[in-house]
Design goal:
CATH architecture of the largest domain: 3-Layer(aba) Sandwich
Radius of gyration: 21 Å
Oligomer: single chain
Number of strands: 9
CATH topology of the largest domain: Rossmann fold
CATH superfamily of the largest domain: NAD(P)-binding Rossmann-like Domain
Bound molecules: nicotinamide-adenine-dinucleotide
Distance between the termini: 74 Å
CATH class of the largest domain: Alpha Beta
Structural class: alpha/beta
Shape: elongated
Order of helices and strands: EHEHEHEHHEHEEHEHEHHHHHHH
């Protein structure tokens, strides 16, 4: 069935996602504040609207794919709020990665207007957006999920109903907290191994077939050699950029603090990736965090060294 889709935010992710909707036969009207995002979308058959309100005016579904919760809430609330500009039966789907609290606020704003809302953040990166192989993590009521699932499959390979509104964002940040923390753990193990005279390949051969096995090791291995396709073998070109990992872990840290959850590793990983992104890692694959660990080791700026230095005994 052809759906009229308004697509707000035609950037690195939104552009190719909108193109895949067009390719699946849907009528897509897009809007982006950045002129450079419009031309590639137009080339892929997206109709470009003169304003966000014009884009949503006759939409069955409004998809937002924006940088942050502030951008999403600016679209959903206030004097230029999009829900009121859309048809009364329109469904709003936010695919951006934003704070869980902002996702709840976005849902509330759409509900107040009488429209329906889902959070549906994605994993899979730009490569997945182009190939139509994203994973969608959806927070929605059962009926809303059933209504929107077929449309999402035009842009993704897996569509997971994670629970009620907000659950999609929760799943996204919990998964990425695992990813960020395991990448640090794998990187620390390689650096420790280096100091113990263990080759990268030997540690990989053991851990990849033992209880240390994880995606950060066997797919995105942070050292060159053992996994030829990993970014470490390609000058740490992302992949998944350090800036995005820092952002997602900041969202996780916000939720950890808001809930008073004893997730010390998650908080520490958020700090490490914030420092990594600020110190040149923003545009590199997040696995380059192994260099930060190696550099800290070389300069003695480690927790252990500090603790020993302060030890009165
Ligand atoms: P991007 O910066 O490339 O695109 C965002 C677009 O939104 C930009 O073109 C910007 O001009 C536009 N925009 C901002 N405010 C707007 C407004 N009010 N109206 C219309 N357009 C507006 O970012 P991206 O990489 O496409 O990421 C989008 C979202 O997807 C983010 O929340 C990000 O965390 C998430 N995400 C990104 C990746 C990735 O690999 N890039 C992976 C998973 C999730």
């Amino acid at each position: 069935m052809t759906t009229r889709v308004a697509f707000i935010g035609l950037g690195n992710m939104g552009g190719p996602m909108a193109a895949n909707l067009v390719a699946a036969g849907h009528v897509v009207t897009g809007f982006d504040l950045a002129p450079q995002a419009l031309e590639p979308a137009r080339d892929h058959g997206v109709r470009i609207a003169a304003s966000p309100a014009a884009a949503v005016a006759d939409a069955d579904v409004v998809i937002t794919m924006l940088p942050s919760g502030t951008h999403v809430l600016d679209c959903y609330r206030g004097p230029n709020a999009l829900p009121a500009a859309a048809p009364a039966d329109a469904v709003f789907v936010d695919c951006s990665t934003i704070d869980v609290a902002d996702a709840h606020a976005a849902h509330a704003a759409v509900r107040e207007s009488g429209r329906r809302a889902l959070d549906a953040p994605v994993s899979g990166g730009v490569v997945g957006a182009v190939a139509g192989t994203l994973t969608f993590m959806v927070g929605a009521d059962d009926a809303d999920f059933a209504a929107i699932e077929p449309l999402l499959t035009a842009m993704g390979r897996r569509v997971v109903h994670c629970g009620p509104p907000g659950a999609g964002q929760a799943a996204k940040i919990c998964n990425n907290m695992i990813l960020g923390a395991t990448m640090i753990a794998v990187s620390e193990a390689f650096v420790l191994g280096e100091h113990l005279g263990l080759s990268h390949q030997a540690l990989f051969d053991v851990a990849s077939a033992a209880s240390g096995q994880c995606w950060a090791l066997t797919t995105n291995c942070p050292v060159p050699g053992p996994v030829p396709a990993s970014p470490a073998n390609h000058d740490y070109r992302p992949g998944f950029a350090g800036a995005l990992m820092a952002k997602d872990l900041r969202l996780a840290a916000n939720a950890i603090r808001a809930g008073g959850v004893a997730a010390e590793l998650g908080l520490h990983a958020a700090e490490m990736y914030a420092a990594f992104a600020e110190n040149g890692g923003a545009d590199r694959d997040f696995s380059a965090v192994v260099h930060a660990i190696r550099e800290q080791t070389a300069t003695g700026a480690t927790a252990t060294a500090t603790a020993e230095g302060n030890d009165p005994a």
